[in-house]
């Protein structure tokens, strides 16, 4: 079973993914936590690119943004076949901090053709459950400022506003996608998520 956390930068995905892992482990469920982009071969290139794309040295930004999405897809292929699927076979509940919806949303927000993005991702399986954490963009930025010393390419208020809007428009892209209000404190957000996950596990 694959549970995916989605949402804008600073929404609280990593925080909530970790809280959900502790919760499920406390119930004796086997859980594997993972994330995209990974820190494997291709994921490491992505992390480098995210810190360099905004720099003036990069001339053809559009070409690079397309190349970046291709890297995300290649990283996902490795992630899925080398990690997610083997863990699922061993009966783990796999929790991924971002997955293919991120490519589609960030790609569209970067001005890339939506059909092309969907085509690139069409052979990847849907998650069993997607938790879309929705926050006010100003709040996301506040949280990011609290956390980071360095800023990645996509972490700025106008882009976060845009990705929030596209996330909500695309909320039905995956079946079993639940939008959770990420504005309240961590515990309240976690409670909303537990309810959704508990009822999904009961139906398993
Ligand atoms: N509900 C919350 N209330 C207050 N602060 C929060 C809440 N959730 C997360 N935070 C804090 O906000 C910051 C960003 O959260 P987090 O790293 O989980 O976001 P994220 O969605 O994973 O971001 P990114 O997409 O950049 O990885 C962290 O410092 C975290 O402790
Ligand atoms: Mg995170």
Q: What report would you give on this structure?
A:
The chain is an alpha/beta fold and about 200 residues long. It has one domain (about 1-200): 3-Layer(aba) Sandwich (Rossmann fold). The protein is about 55% helix and about 15% strand. It is built from 8 helices and 5 strands; from the N terminus they run βαβααβααβααβα. The protein has a 5-stranded parallel β-sheet, sandwiched between helices. The longest helix is centred in the middle third of the chain and has 29 residues, at about 60-90. The radius of gyration is 16 Å and the shape is globular. The model has no long low-confidence stretch (mean pLDDT about 90). Bound molecules: adenosine-5'-triphosphate (ATP) and magnesium ion (MG). Adenosine-5'-triphosphate binds near residues 14, 15, 143, 185 and 186.
Outline of the structure:
With 204 residues, the protein is α/β, with parallel strands linked by helices. The protein contains eight helices and five strands, in the order E-H-E-H-H-E-H-H-E-H-H-E-H.
Q: Ligands bound here?
A: adenosine-5'-triphosphate, magnesium ion
Weakly predicted, low-confidence segments = none
> How many β-strand runs?
5
* The CATH topology: Rossmann fold
Q: Can you tell me the CATH class?
A: Alpha Beta
> Could you describe the largest sheet, including whether it forms a barrel?
5 strands, parallel
Return the average pLDDT rounded to an integer.
Answer: 92
Radius of gyration: 16 Å
Residue fraction in strands: 5-15%
Number of domains: 1
Question: By helix and strand content, what is the structural category?
Answer: alpha/beta
Please name the fourth-level CATH homologous superfamily. Answer: P-loop containing nucleotide triphosphate hydrolases
CA distance, first residue to last residue: 9 Å
Number of helices: 8
Q: Helicity range of the residues?
A: 55-70%
Task: Examine the secondary-structure arrangement and name the CATH architecture.
Answer: 3-Layer(aba) Sandwich
């Amino acid at each position: 079973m694959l549970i995916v956390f989605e949402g804008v930068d600073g929404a609280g995905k990593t925080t909530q993914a970790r809280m959900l892992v502790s919760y499920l482990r406390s119930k004796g469920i086997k859980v594997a936590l993972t994330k995209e982009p990974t820190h494997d071969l291709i994921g490491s290139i992505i992390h480098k690119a995210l810190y360099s794309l905004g720099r003036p040295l990069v001339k053809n930004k559009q070409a690079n943004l397309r190349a970046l999405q291709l890297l995300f897809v290649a990283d996902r292929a490795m992630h899925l076949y080398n990690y997610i699927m083997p863990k699922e076979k061993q009966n783990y509940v796999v929790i991924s901090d971002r997955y293919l919806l991120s490519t589609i949303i960030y790609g569209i927000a970067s001005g890339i053709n939506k059909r092309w993005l969907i085509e690139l991702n069409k052979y990847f399986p849907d998650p069993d459950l997607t938790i879309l954490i929705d926050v006010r963009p100003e709040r996301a930025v506040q949280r990011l400022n609290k956390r980071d010393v360095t800023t990645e390419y996509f972490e700025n208020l106008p882009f976060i506003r845009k990705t929030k809007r596209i996330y909500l428009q695309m909320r039905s892209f995956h079946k079993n996608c639940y939008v959770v209000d990420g504005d309240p404190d961590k515990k309240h957000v976690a409670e909303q998520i537990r309810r959704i996950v508990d009822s999904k596990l009961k139906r398993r």
